[in-house]
Amino acid sequence: MGVKIFYKYNFIIKLIIIIFSLTINTVYADGGWIVRPYLGLEYKLSYTEAEDSWNRLLPTNKLNNNGTIFYGIYFHNYIASEISYTQSNSHTKYSDLSGWNMFGAIAGSGTQQDIKLSYTNYSFDLNCQYPGMDGFALLGTVGISAIKPKLEITNQGAVDSPLLNSNGTIALDGNGNPTIVPGNEAVTTMTGKSQVALRLGVGLQYTKGIVSIRSRVMWEDASKLRVNVGSYNQLLPNITETPFQNTFAWTLGIFIRIL
């Protein structure tokens, strides 16, 4: 998996390595280790890809608005560690899966639903910056995120219906009776499992006095995320727990040094 990530995102990884290398050289030349905390807010515009059949179910492949609060400590003029919390907005998608091949089986009638999707995210990052002119600096970020998705599902199927096999025949249970897919039900919540994912970013930062403004492009390995599908596997027996692929984002943040 690590080799695959390296080749797929070769450019951004090389750019981060260059920024970190330049920063380390600057640190050795500059000296001056410090402890300087800061606090800030950040806007994040993100785009998450979905896996296979999940793409028909989820409101992914859309832009999401997110808000982040973060706290960091500079332990050198050009190196900082940072913790943050991010909350996304929610998107809702209606889908009618009747007759579609979903996770290796044909979905029967009655498999219509609304799905609302949102995320929470705790992150730890290491930020390095290479100083330029007039308060500007190149910024590189390497970090990890504990991301937790939340899916709220409202079934819109009108009536109970039999589950169909991939060849169109009715699926039977262990007693030889038809497997029935329930129709309208109350809202079902798929609880996400918090998973640690790698995240990388590059950007530009401007500092004036105690105030800094930064903008970055980010990538997160969303393929690590899992969901507890709960009773939804009664509708789609082969449903997987891995809905996502990658998350790409653009961020714009502002922070103030506390000391």
Written account of the structure:
With 259 residues, this protein is mainly beta. Helix content is 12%, strand content 55%. It has one domain: Porin, CATH 2.40.160.20. It has helices spanning 2-8, 10-30, 54-57, and strands spanning 33-50, 63-76, 79-88, 91-96, 101-102, 105-106, 112-131, 136-155, 161-162, 180-181, 188-193, 195-208, 211-220, 226-227, 244-257. 31% of the residues are buried. The model has no long low-confidence stretch (mean pLDDT 80).
In the CATH hierarchy, what is the class? Mainly Beta
- Which fold name is given in CATH as the topology? Porin
Q: Please, what is the oligomeric state?
A: single chain
Average pLDDT metric: 80
Number of beta-strand segments: 15
Low-confidence stretches: none
The amount of beta strand, in percent, is over 45%
Gap between N and C termini, in Å?
A: 41 Å
Q: How do the strands line up in the largest sheet?
A: 1-2-3-7-8-12-13-15
**Count of the separate structural domains:** 1
Number of helices, where a helix is a run of at least 4 consecutive DSSP H or I residues = 3
* H and E string: HHEHEEEEEEEEEEEEEE
Name the overall outline: elongated
- Structural class per helix/strand content? mainly beta
* Biggest β-sheet strands, sense, barrel: 8 strands, antiparallel, barrel
Short description:
The chain has 259 residues and is mostly beta strands. Helix content is 12%, strand content 55%.
Question: Key features?
Answer:
259 residues; mainly beta; Porin; eight-stranded antiparallel barrel; two-stranded antiparallel sheet; 15 strands
